[in-house]
């Protein structure tokens, strides 16, 4: 199969109507999309990615108003968050209707729903009458893609079309929020920070994102986002000590002016998030012995960055 890259939304739509999968741009990362109501299309997503079937998929819709077609109940707090953050990098876990195939949720009673904030993909979603199931458009376990070229490098020959919408602006995946009674639980840290969520709700929320072998949000598997070159996350103060001929160092802020690469010379966490996956891919292509990355301040979107770095770390087998 040849893989085309193009900007024609109608071409993406034609593949989707045909039951095929296409890569789509979002503000977080590129997604590998198929008709969420068509089990055969959904199976193609898992196959193209080599993704295990126990890992459920997020469905994407053009309007918050459409969510009620696919879920049985929307908690008040979900509405409140949606009014502030959707379209945007936030995903809601809500009780699913029977029309959502079990393969989407890996058997769970809840489905993950998101309204992405990307003009091209919103236009595509409005042009079809089904939700798009879309995991990140990378081979399972590798670094997520933030440009059409990243998708091409991972999935060429495995999918017919990549819809080009430029580089992703946010650069880390959506924050996943779960609702249990009146409790709100962050299942994955992402583009919207815990602080932003708490500011809107006016009360503290909890996090249950611990890496484990049987996670509630299975993207929380410990080994994920991994480079082929062993990667180590280190304290900011020790990064410089890892500068050697055969290593790559990735720093943050002016303190790391001597690093091989810098996530944000100005020390801006949003800029760091935007460049994170691209820099990991570039570093991985250098044939170095090891990649050392500085942790970033653990606040705001920095929490999501540190989470991805932790999961990208070399696992002692
Ligand atoms: O920003 C994003 O969310 C991107 C773009 C493409 O929208 N998508 C993305 O998908 O990151 P993926 O498949 O790489 O990660 C989805 C995460 C996984 O950790 C999965 O386990 C969790 O969402 N998830 C999906 N459905 C779930 C469910 N029903 N219950 C719990 N976790 C779920
Ligand atoms: Mg992923």
TrEMBL record:
<comment type="function">
    <text>Required for the formation of a threonylcarbamoyl group on adenosine at position 37 (t(6)A37) in tRNAs that read codons beginning with adenine.</text>
</comment>
<dbReference type="InterPro" id="IPR010923">
    <property type="entry name" value="T(6)A37_SUA5"/>
</dbReference>
<keyword id="KW-0548">Nucleotidyltransferase</keyword>
<dbReference type="InterPro" id="IPR005145">
    <property type="entry name" value="Sua5_C"/>
</dbReference>
<dbReference type="InterPro" id="IPR050156">
    <property type="entry name" value="TC-AMP_synthase_SUA5"/>
</dbReference>
<dbReference type="InterPro" id="IPR038385">
    <property type="entry name" value="Sua5/YwlC_C"/>
</dbReference>
<keyword id="KW-0808">Transferase</keyword>
<keyword id="KW-0819">tRNA processing</keyword>
<dbReference type="InterPro" id="IPR006070">
    <property type="entry name" value="Sua5-like_dom"/>
</dbReference>
<keyword id="KW-0547">Nucleotide-binding</keyword>
<dbReference type="InterPro" id="IPR017945">
    <property type="entry name" value="DHBP_synth_RibB-like_a/b_dom"/>
</dbReference>
<keyword id="KW-0963">Cytoplasm</keyword>
<keyword id="KW-0067">ATP-binding</keyword>
<dbReference type="Pfam" id="PF03481">
    <property type="entry name" value="Sua5_C"/>
</dbReference>
<dbReference type="GO" id="GO:0061710">
    <property type="term" value="F:L-threonylcarbamoyladenylate synthase"/>
</dbReference>
<protein>
    <recommendedName>
        <fullName>Threonylcarbamoyl-AMP synthase</fullName>
        <ecNumber>2.7.7.87</ecNumber>
    </recommendedName>
</protein>
<comment type="similarity">
    <text>Belongs to the SUA5 family.</text>
</comment>
<feature type="domain" description="YrdC-like">
    <location>
        <begin position="6"/>
        <end position="192"/>
    </location>
</feature>
<dbReference type="Pfam" id="PF01300">
    <property type="entry name" value="Sua5_yciO_yrdC"/>
</dbReference>
């Amino acid at each position: 199969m040849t893989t085309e890259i193009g900007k024609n939304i109608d071409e993406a739509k034609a593949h989707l109507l045909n039951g095929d999968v296409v890569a789509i741009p979002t503000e977080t990362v590129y997604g590998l999309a198929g008709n969420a109501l068509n089990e055969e299309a959904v199976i193609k997503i898992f196959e193209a990615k080599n993704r295990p079937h126990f890992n459920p998929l997020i469905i994407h819709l053009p309007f918050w108003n459409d969510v009620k077609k696919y879920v049985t109940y929307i908690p008040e707090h979900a509405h409140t968050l949606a009014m502030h953050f959707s379209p945007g990098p936030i995903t809601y876990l809500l009780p699913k209707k029977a029309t959502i195939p079990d393969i989407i949720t890996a058997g769970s009673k809840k489905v993950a729903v998101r309204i992405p904030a990307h003009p091209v993909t919103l236009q595509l979603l409005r042009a079809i009458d089904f939700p798009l199931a879309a995991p990140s458009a990378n081979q399972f376990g590798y670094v997520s893609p933030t440009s059409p070229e990243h998708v091409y490098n991972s999935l060429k020959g495995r999918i017919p079309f990549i819809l080009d919408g430029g580089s992703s602006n946010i650069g880390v995946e959506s924050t996943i929020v779960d609702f249990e009674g009146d409790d709100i639980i962050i299942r994955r840290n992402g583009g919207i920070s815990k602080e932003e969520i708490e500011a809107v709700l006016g009360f503290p929320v909890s996090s249950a994102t611990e890496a484990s072998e049987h996670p509630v949000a299975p993207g929380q598997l410990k080994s994920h986002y991994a480079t082929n070159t062993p990667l180590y996350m280190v304290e900011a103060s020790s990064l410089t000590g890892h500068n050697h001929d055969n290593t790559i160092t990735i720093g943050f802020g002016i303190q790391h002016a001597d690093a091989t690469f810098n996530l944000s010379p100005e020390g801006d966490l949003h800029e760091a998030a935007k460049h994170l996956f691209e820099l990991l891919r570039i570093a991985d292509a250098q044939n170095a012995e090891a990649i050392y990355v500085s942790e970033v301040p653990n606040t705001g979107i920095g929490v999501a960055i540190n989470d991805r770095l932790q999961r990208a770390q070399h696992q002692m087998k």
